[in-house]
Design a protein that fits this description.
This protein has 128 residues and is an all-alpha fold. The chain contains six helices and no strands. The two termini are 29 Å apart. The model has no long low-confidence stretch (mean pLDDT 92).
Amino acid sequence: MASRKQEIYCALLYDGLIHIRFLCGRGARLSAEEALNFQGWFEVGWEEANFLHHVHNSILDPEYVENDISFINFAFPCHISRMGHQLGGSKAALMLEFYEGVPEALHPQLTWHPSKEFRVLAAQGRGE
């Protein structure tokens, strides 16, 4: 049975891959002029791929390991910064749950901590 950490990774991967698939599928049918207008969306797709590119290192580990802490400390703040208002509440909720699942013994290794604004976005994603 998968741990909650693994389930969150799967949900993040699913959402990210669906988003990238949409962008690539759409981009394959654009004229050159349309592609230039779509450039911002391609940057979002790149950011999705960048956010998820180390997930494979620990998705099979049911417990939190060093890669998961690095994911939180480095990928989370970069992704939040680059995505801005496009992040979305449901993804923020998954990210916050992933963060909150870190065992107490690993808390001293965390250098990123969710802001009040991020927590509000995550709460919206959970329907609160």
